[in-house]
TrEMBL record:
Binds 1 [4Fe-4S] cluster. The cluster is coordinated with 3 cysteines and an exchangeable S-adenosyl-L-methionine. Binds 1 [2Fe-2S] cluster. The cluster is coordinated with 3 cysteines and 1 arginine. SUPFAM superfamilies: Radical SAM enzymes. Its cofactor is [4Fe-4S] cluster; [2Fe-2S] cluster. This is Biotin synthase. One of its GO terms (molecular function) is iron ion binding. It comes from Thiopseudomonas denitrificans.
Length: 351
């Protein structure tokens, strides 16, 4: 069998649909082959996510409890103080996380916000953690400033296909999203971009989302695939469930199309059984968020993740870019020794 492992940026829709159309076992087999050529299949990257500014967002993303357009009873929170963010990052590092992601519910950061945000990046970076942020739209200068401050990843999801997009968001265009991704890429940062399943999109929309991502000039280094978390008060509160096998298919096709990217099993993990998460890892997902909250929705609690990793023989992946090999060898050793105890950042205890 021909295995598509070369990095391609010229995927065609018929090819992507053909992958979705494969018998489930054949698709998973292909995804596994591709996955094992580029990754240790028994390692999963673990990130910690902190909401640095919560709620009252001017955007109208229909899936999002943080949108100011919907009443979801969410506790709003202004931008956290830099010191508080650094304390949380230190805590995440001490307990084994390798990447610290900071999310703000903004349309875009303002000139007033930027100095604080840059301080957060510098501080977290200085701890030896990988840094990631999601702050909404960025212009060229903001992207440069963030890159210079040491931001490794910028998250900006495409969410769905260009065709379906306007049914989900009307306050920001698809083209604006692509523009932000271009600024981030041009500034030399890595891109984290993916989408959400379960918003009423068709199979073709899912295929077209992957087509958009894979045909970018560079594959996003991180591709989060979310399952809609239905939140009362949002317009998608009563959306139909995604067939679990269709969700797994999406992960597998993403793995095949973007062989070197980390495919992240992201929001919606709380609703997934252990068996489904195991299938997701088999399909090539190799990154998760850890913590009891994924921004504002529940994320599986510490014990369940620890137990699942242990039951599956999965270990957390360490940083790939070793500024200081000795330091990271020691960290890896410490993490392995502490497996099952202090391995994960317990966001619940940090409240
Ligand atoms: S997804 Fe982001 S941009 Fe959209 S409403 Fe939520 S916080 Fe705002």
């Amino acid at each position: 069998m021909q295995v598509a492992h070369d990095l391609r940026h010229d995927w065609r829709l018929d090819e992507v649909l053909a992958l979705f159309d494969l018998p489930f076992n054949d698709l998973l087999f292909r995804a596994q082959l591709v996955h094992r050529q580029h990754f240790d299949a028994n390692r999963v990257q673990v990130s910690t996510l902190l909401s640095i500014k919560t709620g009252a967002c001017p955007e109208d993303c229909k899936y999002c409890p943080q949108s100011g357009h919907y009443n979801t009873g969410l506790d709003k929170q202004k931008l956290l103080e830099v010191q508080k963010v650094l304390e949380e990052a230190q805590r995440a590092k001490t307990q084994g996380s390798t990447r610290f992601c900071m999310g703000a519910a903004w349309k875009h950061p303002t000139a007033k916000d930027m100095p604080y945000v840059l301080e957060m990046v510098k501080g977290v970076k200085a701890m030896g953690l990988e840094t990631c942020m999601t702050l909404g739209r960025l212009d060229e200068q903001q992207s440069r400033e963030l890159a210079e401050a040491g931001l490794d990843y910028y998250n900006h999801n495409l969410d769905t296909s260009p065709e379906f997009y306007s049914q989900i968001i009307t306050t920001r265009t698809y083209a604006e999203r692509l523009q932000t991704l271009a600024h981030v890429r041009d500034a030399g940062m890595k891109i984290c971009s993916g989408g959400i399943l379960g918003m009423g999109e068709s199979l073709a929309d899912r295929a077209k989302l992957l087509l958009e991502l894979a045909n970018l000039p560079e594959h996003p280094q991180s591709v989060p695939i979310n399952q809609l978390v239905k939140v009362q008060g949002t317009p998608l509160a009563d959306a139909e469930d995604v067939d679990p096998f269709d969700f797994i298919r999406m992960l597998a096709v993403a793995r095949i199309m973007m062989p070197k990217s980390h495919v992240r099993l992201s929001a919606g993990r709380e609703q997934m059984s252990d068996e489904m998460q195991a299938l997701a890892f088999m399909a090539g997902a190799n990154s998760i968020f850890y913590g009891d909250k994924l921004l504002t929705t529940d994320n599986p609690e510490a014990d369940r993740d620890r137990q699942l990793f242990a039951r599956l023989g999965i270990q957390p992946e360490q940083r790939q870019e070793h500024d200081d090999d000795v330091h990271y060898a020691a960290l890896e050793q410490a993490v392995l020794q502490n497996r099952g105890s202090e391995l994960f950042y317990d966001a619940a205890a940090a409240q």
